[in-house]
Amino acid sequence: MPEKRYLFTPGPTPVPPQVLAALAQPVIHHRGPDFVRAYGECLERLGAVHRTANDVLLFTASGTGAFESAVSNLTSPGERAVVVSAGNFGERWASMAKAFGADLVHVRYAWGETPDPEDLRGALAEAGGARTVYLTHSETSTGVVADIEALASVARDAGALVVVDAVSSLGAVPLETDAWGIDVVVSGSQKALMTPPGLGTASVSAAALERAGTTTSPRFYFDWEQTRVAQQSLDAAFTPAVPLVLALNVALGLILEEGLEAAFERHARLGRACREGVKAMGLELFSPDDDRSAVVTAVKVPPGIDAAELLLALRDRFGVQLVGGQGELKGKILRIGHIGWFDIFDITTALSALELGLVEAGAQIERGVAAGRAMESFVEAARV
Amino acid sequence: MPEKRYLFTPGPTPVPPQVLAALAQPVIHHRGPDFVRAYGECLERLGAVHRTANDVLLFTASGTGAFESAVSNLTSPGERAVVVSAGNFGERWASMAKAFGADLVHVRYAWGETPDPEDLRGALAEAGGARTVYLTHSETSTGVVADIEALASVARDAGALVVVDAVSSLGAVPLETDAWGIDVVVSGSQKALMTPPGLGTASVSAAALERAGTTTSPRFYFDWEQTRVAQQSLDAAFTPAVPLVLALNVALGLILEEGLEAAFERHARLGRACREGVKAMGLELFSPDDDRSAVVTAVKVPPGIDAAELLLALRDRFGVQLVGGQGELKGKILRIGHIGWFDIFDITTALSALELGLVEAGAQIERGVAAGRAMESFVEAARV
């Protein structure tokens, strides 16, 4: 029998066949009419997915490149920036702000905690003069999705520009760029946007662009103004990753065809089903058991189980790719991603594989209980 | 009849079907064994194509991103840098060096001229204290391929680090990174490497890495040390463009299977055939009529012909994509790219399309003369 592979990591995520097919088309010139049409459509669809009237700038880069575009365009050395972090990607904001010479105020939680808007309010009041606040919507390393509306509101009240990492949340959980007054949203192609990694995005408000006009940090490739002007004439500033842009356009079309609200609802239901299945196996959740955390289910590794061995067995024996914890959570948690092109059978497969692996490692688990409870939860949700 | 498309631009370039097929494989995790194996192989093959024992750093970015990695890792504000420019991409080095605060000495030629190593020697002597010299191997905007061995030698004599843009030359014309003492070679996936755009590379010498350790320009995404360390354990610093890396690995395998010398010889023969065909139509070459200029054939637009209209007719009526001039050469030249996955029939097709277009626009050209002369040149070369 052919070995089948299952990608249940929180990025990269599975890519639908229509999107893969777009990647394999013969390469076309980036200044020809076919590409220009798709590029324009892609930029428009990005605006719709962000729910913004702002420009969404598209970079050939990983999500980290889009992060850097925010920091390098908004930071002049010595200016005060506040970073809220509770995991690996929040820490990345802090490292990057420091690299660009920001006077960093770090509101730092233990990995896995959920940021409290009142802590941010206190930190902003105490520090004073914060020019920019960097937030993480979905902290992929822990599974926590923050209340970004409330956090953004607090940052705005303090007169700061609000920058949000939405790499693993955009298209999966509600994010209202304009309604919530978020100046900059950075994201990437490889999560809920159902496209391979390689494209980073940054939606930029008028205020953010105005700030960028006065920022002294050196930059070229990620310079917002250069990319904004180029996008206005649908002529990318630098040769874009043609197949990835065509693929992203197809994927965004699929997302908007399903409808953003339907996609959010689907992610919430799948997250709930996954958590219910995990608990039914007698495992403890690491990520919060709430509907907002619909992107990644983080599970505590049960006592007596070696996480690395379990993950290797799942991968090499069953073709199922989950991931462990990053940084300080290494060995302590497992993560099941359900971002983007996922349905209930991906959840039952992930849970069934986990059951197989744990039982082989000596755990006592009633056969099929996780998949059963997940389906039950999924069907219950449909009845509501 | 289905409309067939022909991509004869100097980037992006045609991608072989095996490479396209690699793009369309279901996405795999970048930390799983299949990717790690291909990633390691790809990095090794990049070293072979560069003819270097240095690390070749791989970035998810356009070639311009690889440029920026060189400038941001080598430039501390106020340090003297020399840029030799004779076209659009040389000018890009200059813009970028200025953006990062270099004290720029600009050895600037008219677009289309061939840089003279003695001019560089004079400029270096006059300026003194140059820390870095930025060169362009193949100036894609004009078709000129510089004598990079001689230029690099002059720069080295002056004690400067040597940085070469080989975006459109790597794999097409001879480049001996180590034998010629080139500290940094930047390139991209989308030219002779026969892969879509989206990956940039930088080969870095020990001296270049040492300099980077003392450079004060802020950087994160393009930081060499971060990428170098990550590559050592085959764990990319940031989520890589998985399908592009797999595709590049396939393409590099094809190049090395053909053999670098054979690829160089093929490019030289195709370039000669193209130039002979162009001249047989009574057109004047803009790029030099020498075997080094094997990458792009730039042709002067004949009097009475509107370049933009001609290019549109070729594209929209015949499905043949050539490009015009950039910047100050707009309207004055046409460019035929023959980089990467090209054979003699691509040359005869490009020339035949040009003949059709020119005759329709009123030119007097003997039917088939260009294709005929190109084939003759090609066959003669085989006999030598």
Strand order, main sheet of chain A: write it out.
2-10-9-8-5-3-4
Shape-level CATH architecture of the largest domain in chain A: 3-Layer(aba) Sandwich
Q: Assess the beta-strand content of chain A as a share of residues.
A: 15-25%
The number of E-state strands of chain A comes to 14
N-C termini distance of chain A: 40 Å
Main beta-sheet strand count, sense and barrel state of chain A: 7 strands, mixed
Helix share bin of chain A: 40-55%
Largest interface (CB within 8 Å) is between: A-B, 60 and 60 residues
What value does the Rg of chain A take, in angstroms? Answer: 21 Å
Look at the structure and name the CATH superfamily of the largest domain in chain A: Type I PLP-dependent aspartate aminotransferase-like (Major domain)
Number of helices of chain A: 13
Q: Per CATH, what is the topology of the largest domain in chain A? A: Aspartate Aminotransferase, domain 2
Task: Output the structural class of chain A.
Answer: alpha/beta
The number of distinct structural domains of chain A comes to: 2
Shape of chain A: globular
Order of helices and strands of chain A: EHHEHEHEHEEEHEEEHHHHEHEEEHH
CATH class of the largest domain in chain A: Alpha Beta
* Average predicted confidence as pLDDT of chain A: 97
Quaternary form = homodimer
